[in-house]
Write a structure and sequence with these properties.
Blueprint (H helix, E strand, L loop, with lengths): L18 E3 L2 E6 L4 E6 L3 E14 L6 E4 L2 E5 L4 E17 L7 H10 L9 E2 L2 H10 L7 E3 H17 L7 E10 L19 H6 L13 E3 L12 H16 L4 E3 L15 H11 L4 E5 L7 E2 L5 E7 L2 E12 L2 E4 L6 E4 L2 E4 L2 E4 L6 E10 L2 E12 L3 E7 L7 E6 H4 L1 E6 L9 E2 L8 E8 L2 E6 L2 E6 L2 E2 L2 E8 L4 E8 L5 E8 L8 E7 L18 E5 L5 E6 L3 E8 L5
Parallel strand pairs: 10-33, 11-12
Antiparallel strand pairs: 1-9, 2-7, 3-7, 4-5, 4-6, 4-7, 6-8, 10-13, 13-31, 14-30, 15-21, 15-23, 16-17, 16-20, 16-22, 18-21, 19-20, 22-27, 23-24, 24-25, 25-26, 27-28, 28-29, 31-32, 32-37, 33-36, 34-35, 34-37
Helix pairs in contact: 5-6
């Protein structure tokens, strides 16, 4: 290019000192073009404008990239491409992300969760306009340094501001698959009255999914998340539990009288509104859904104190020592602080001599999360066994307890400080007046509990943050989807609806949400957390939806069933 340049100087721009190698390249390739697998020297984003390309890499193994989609291939990975249909693309290569706003860049770097599933992303209209409008001057090997800098910043702005968040989960709902079964005659009646912690409700929300059919469970007295306040997190925990019961209507009979909702003029708890939403949107029957909860995520175990206790049993402990950071400490058990029960020390033995229902003595001199606790323990009189506490907070509200000999000395398990069971209850019997060698191995991920050298029970806390169920309302001819998002970040799901016909794009969405998990309604603000109804206009056989943080959402989608 010669003549008068935009710089006001007659010269060839490609020979200008400001010309640099172009990192945003427009290219075309015919069908059959093959790029052998080779290591990426830079990060590369491939925007496919036309055609179809087969991508093969660790992240996108055998993935077909179609027109209107793009992928990010990380530096250092091997990438192979095969053009299936004549292709036109724009490729952006870079070592580190361009940023136009330091605050936005730092937020994305530290707060945005990376994708769990690698799949192509859609080119939104703003991005398509940028790519097509820039194609004419992005085809050269060199480009003005100043122009390239501006285009890179513009591209970064579009990707961070205009492009939707990546899909976290994909869920298939089969409207033609009626998974409801007729309730069997009552063979085994179980009262499932629970007053557990939010963690307990979340962790056990799928327990009925795993129960064998052939027994009828009656939920006789309702349920309540046992926390210090009626906050949003406890509400979502109850909803997750309710969804598990709703999915198993052949197994669980809910006592709806126990879930009676106050009138609008009196209701002020978020749980009241959530129960009303559930009851008012009960489907005729359940339908098939590919997932009932998201992938459980590990929970870091917090540092805490250790302790000892019992339930309606006299117990004894001795030879208490802790190994941490290569140092072994034999603790003076006389320093234990009694919270409840009758405790005393005799001849180096810590004794609890009452038949109180729950007793506890805490060792205040130790706080940790990575250690090995060893001791000897035994029961001397009573109906059950002994407790070993760990991870106990200073206010005694957080932590866990290994319960040996629960339910008349027949079982063992681990529970939280409020008595909520967090592990499977296993058979175990303790002999009377027999010393047991006890070891508790604690890490930041969880614990393992040994008796006489054998592993009895372990617990590595993990918890799902999203929960789902699906049904069909025959009278309204609507699919009913219910989703809980207990995370502090938005949650994007791609739904696939099969088995329906003439799916209407416009449908109703009812959402109960809060800014934070600890938020709650008050007498002054009874509707701070309140169901909001809106319209969604993008329902279809496939659609994406962004669920708000700390939310319970019900979607009603008009679609007659296929015959």
């Amino acid at each position: 290019m010669s003549g008068l340049s935009t710089c006001g100087v007659t010269m060839n721009c490609l020979e200008c000192p400001k010309a640099v190698t172009n990192s945003i390249v427009h290219a075309s390739h015919p069908r059959g073009f093959h790029k052998p697998a080779q290591k990426c020297e830079e990060n590369i984003i491939i925007f496919l404008l036309k055609g179809e390309v087969l991508v093969n890499s660790q992240e996108y193994a055998g993935t077909t990239l179609r027109a209107g989609e793009f992928i990010l291939q990380a530096i250092g990975s091997k990438l192979e491409l095969l053009v299936m249909e004549d292709a036109e693309c724009v490729c952006y290569s870079f070592n580190k992300p361009e940023f136009f706003c330091e605050e936005r860049y730092n937020h994305i770097k530290t707060q945005v969760t990376p994708p769990l599933i690698f799949s192509p992303l859609k080119i939104v209209p703003e991005l398509k306009h940028f790519l097509e409008g820039s194609a004419s001057y992005l085809s050269k090997d060199k480009i003005c340094r100043e122009l390239l800098s501006l285009k890179k910043k513009e591209l970064a702005f579009i990707l961070s501001s205009c492009h939707p968040t990546s899909v976290r989960d994909e869920i298939t709902v089969n409207l033609h698959q009626d998974v409801s079964t007729e309730a069997v005659p009552i063979e085994n009646v179980i009262d499932t009255f629970y007053r557990g912690s939010p963690e307990c409700f979340f962790t056990n929300s799928a327990m009925f999914d795993r129960e064998p059919r052939g027994k009828f469970l009656i939920h006789a007295h309702g349920y309540m998340c046992k926390v210090d306040s009626s906050n949003m997190l406890s509400t979502l925990a109850e909803v997750a539990w309710h969804l598990g019961m709703e999915r198993n209507g052949d197994l669980v009979q809910i006592d709806f009288d126990s879930l009676a909702v106050k009138g609008d003029d009196e209701s002020k708890f978020s749980a009241d509104y959530a129960r009303a939403m559930s009851l008012e949107n009960t489907p005729t029957y359940n339908v098939g859904i590919s997932k009932v909860q998201s992938t459980p995520l590990p929970i870091k175990v917090e540092k805490g104190m250790i302790g000892f206790g019992s339930w309606d049993t006299e117990v004894e402990f001795k030879d208490i020592q802790i190994e941490m950071d290569g140092k072994v400490t034999l603790y003076d058990i006389s320093r234990c602080h009694a919270d409840s029960g009758e405790w005393n020390v005799q001849d180096g033995v810590l004794m609890q001599t009452s038949r109180q229902l729950r007793t506890r003595a805490i060792l205040p001199d130790f706080v940790g999360d990575k250690y090995v606790l060893t001791l000897k323990a035994r029961r001397t009189r009573g109906n059950e066994g002994f407790f070993i506490y760990y991870g106990v907070s200073t206010d005694r509200k957080k932590g866990y307890c290994v319960n040996m000999g629960r339910w008349n000395n027949r079982f063992a398990n681990i529970e939280d400080m409020k008595g909520g069971v967090v592990t499977k209850i296993i058979p175990y019997h303790l002999k009377n007046k027999c010393w047991y060698d006890v070891k508790l191995l604690s890490t930041s991920e969880g614990v393992e509990f040994y008796v006489n050298g054998r592993l009895v029970v372990g617990y590595k806390p993990v918890m799902s943050q999203q929960f789902y169920t699906a049904g069909y309302d025959e009278e309204a001819e609507e699919a009913v989807l219910k989703v809980v998002n207990s995370a502090e970040t938005p949650y994007k799901v791609r739904f696939h609806l099969v088995g329906g016909t003439q799916i209407e794009a416009k449908g109703r969405v009812i959402t109960l949400s809060a800014v934070a998990g600890m938020d709650e309604n008050t007498v002054e603000e009874p509707t701070r957390i309140y169901p909001r109804e809106s319209q969604f206009r993008e329902f279809g056989e496939q659609f994406d939806y962004d669920f708000l943080p700390f939310s319970y959402t019900i979607m009603r989608i008009k679609t007659p069933k296929k015959g």
